[in-house]
Specification:
- The complex is a heterodimer of chains A (424) and B (248).
- Chain A has 424 residues and is of the alpha/beta class.
- Chain A has helices at 2-7, 14-17, 25-34, 113-118, 129-136, 372-380, 385-401, 407-423; strands at 78-83, 86-87, 101-105, 142-146, 156-163, 170-171, 174-179, 184-194, 201-210, 215-223, 229-238, 243-252, 255-264, 270-279, 284-293, 299-309, 313-322, 329-340, 345-354, 359-368.
- In chain A, the strands form 2 sheets. Chain A has a 10-stranded mixed beta sheet, covered by helices on one side.
- Chain A is globular, with a radius of gyration of 21 Å.
- Chain B has a 6-stranded mixed beta sheet with strand order 6-9-10-3-11-12, with helices on both faces. Chain B has a 4-stranded antiparallel beta sheet with strand order 2-1-4-5, with helices on one face.
- The longest helix of chain B has 15 residues, at 95-109.
- Chain B is globular, with a radius of gyration of 18 Å.
- Classes of the chains: A alpha/beta (424), B alpha/beta (248).
- At the A-B interface, helix 6 and helix 7 of A face helix 2, strand 7 and helix 3 of B.
- The structure holds adenosine-5'-triphosphate and magnesium ion.
- Residues 40-41, 85, 170-171 of chain B line the site of magnesium ion.
Amino acid sequence: MATATMTDPKEGVLPLIEGSTWPGAAEALALVQTLPVPTSKTEAWKYTRVAKLFNFAYTAPSGDAPVELPPRLPFPATRVVFVNGHFRRDLSDELKADKGVVIDSITHHLAHGPLQANYGRIAPIGDRLFTAMNAAGPTDGLIILAVKGAQTTKPVHVLRITTGNGGPMLIQPRDLIMLHEGAKVELIDEHVAIGNAASSLVNSVRECVVGDGAELTLHMAQNEPDGPADIGLDAVEVAAGGHFSVDTTTLHGTLVRNELFVSLAGAGAHAELNGTYLLNGTAHADNHTCISHDVADCTSDELYKGIVAGKATGVFNGRVYVRQDAQRTRAYQRNANVLAGDDARVYSKPELEIYADDVKCSHGCTIGRMDEQALFYLRSRGVGEAEARRLMAHAFVTEVVERIANAEWRTHLTGLIDTKLETL
Amino acid sequence: MLKINGLQASIGDKQILKGLNLAVKAGEVHAIMGPNGSGKSTLANVLAGREDYEVTSGTISYQGEDLLPLAPEERAWKGLFLAFQYPVEIPGVSNLNFLRTALNEKRIANGQPEMGGKDFLALVRERAKLVEMEPDLMNRNLNVGFSGGEKKRNEIFQMAMLEPRLGILDETDSGLDIDALRIVAGGVNKLRSKDNAFIVVTHYQRLLDYIVPDVVHVMADGKILKSGPKELALELEEKGYDWVKEHA
Ligand SMILES: Nc1ncnc2c1ncn2[C@@H]1O[C@H](COP(=O)(O)OP(=O)(O)OP(=O)(O)O)[C@@H](O)[C@H]1O
Ligand SMILES: [Mg+2]
């Protein structure tokens, strides 16, 4: 036993999560001990190597690090700040403004019935080591609870700051978003690294329950040069007539893994998944999505587009699962990539598993270079080469951005994207 | 304005232009006719700076300057314009935004101030009239979903906006209905002046009824075989290209 422990690559992690009193932590810890670290032979992790994440002797994250907050978003939003995974009420806005919407640190609600009914249920551990690690010792997290018909009047802006230069930290955010019947919540999730945090690991799990006819909109922006490794799972269950839409924009990232699992669990549920990744340097972004059509008459629409330059790597894996009795499913999926540079890598894999017979599903994935003919056309009219490339790149990703309903976020995102495109 | 001497160009291992000579003076319109595959579009693309074609020998002087080292955009800034035989569709790039970028880059390169939004739109309205462009097309994505004729009209509209010194029209008449042909030709005629010149590549004598050329060239197998006055086009229509090849 002793020798096994000595060679266990999880040695740097285990001491930090042992003894946690969160619900299900003990069971999760047992799984952490038995589940192997994924290797390139693990199908789901083929292109994203995580062994190196277990080479660090992590320390517990400190939430009271002094931070200078980045400028506010250029439109009204309720800002909730987490520093190294810890909720910072002092840095957050007034959170009680919207009637019927609770926004708080999840730690204050762990004993409540509604939490217990869903916590760990939407994102079961299965064979996922990272989910087990998170469940075995969460740092802190966000809870949003919207009662029947309640709405956020402005988006909730969750700012997650990781501070650098303090040695490697293991940060494990654990969120629960619950929308009761007809509730509407819009959430912006932004990760920001201050200083060089590249040796830290942020391993997040967020569970979302979208009730009957409820609407959850999630915007994720990952723009972290020298940011921590960012392994995240969003698990979402959408009830009848519910609507979940998400856009994920990755502009920088040391190692980003976005897992998104959506279960369409009630008739008429709809999911819309949009993603953009603009990568250069040695950035690595892996979007692993799975949409499960569990019942009849649900729809999903997914579009991910990326430009990958330099020595960066983009991975897209899109699984669409249609259960046998999920008749009249409509599921659309597309992934398009532009490879810019000889050392850039893109791996794209759609996976359709359809067991119902009356379905409309389509999927497509492309990996190509920028259209030289179009570039020449633009240049021949007097648009300089760099500008022509930018125009083309902008045109390529704008298709994704245009699908985002919130005009203010769309404009803000367009600005971030254009700034990034200057550097590609 | 333009002097081409002994121009040879190839793509991959395939030589397409095989020692081409051409001289165009300001104020002139030159027509180039010739069978499919003779290299007309290749010449047009080489002039515009397409990098796929390798110039292996010969010279091109444009307004007294060596054209060959210049990038496509630099050529455009110096007043060269190619209306494409097959205009490219570019999704996500708006017709007008792109044109404004092109126009202003050209102005900056020529030491002129950028044109503001209001002046630009006024110019758009004026020049659109010249080719009777549907206003709706302006705001659409560049050539996306345009009909063949609309694309060609858009080429001439862009040319009218950019006011080139040397305009090269590669089969702009192909795919135009009779009314559109008249309108497009009328647009070109209005742009003609003693300071600029046009090279018009066409298969049809009909266009030359509207845009009356000073010189007609017959191109075959990468060379200009015969040049003559506008009547040469009529003769070609009557006797075919073999006649030129035999008498060259
Ligand atoms: N990118 C290319 N790759 C290979 N061959 C090419 C390429 N572009 C042109 N060619 C060849 O060069 C020759 C000349 O082509 P070009 O397009 O210049 O002819 P053209 O005179 O414009 O013909 P058309 O009247 O049909 O437009 C043709 O044989 C063509 O197949
Ligand atoms: Mg041609």
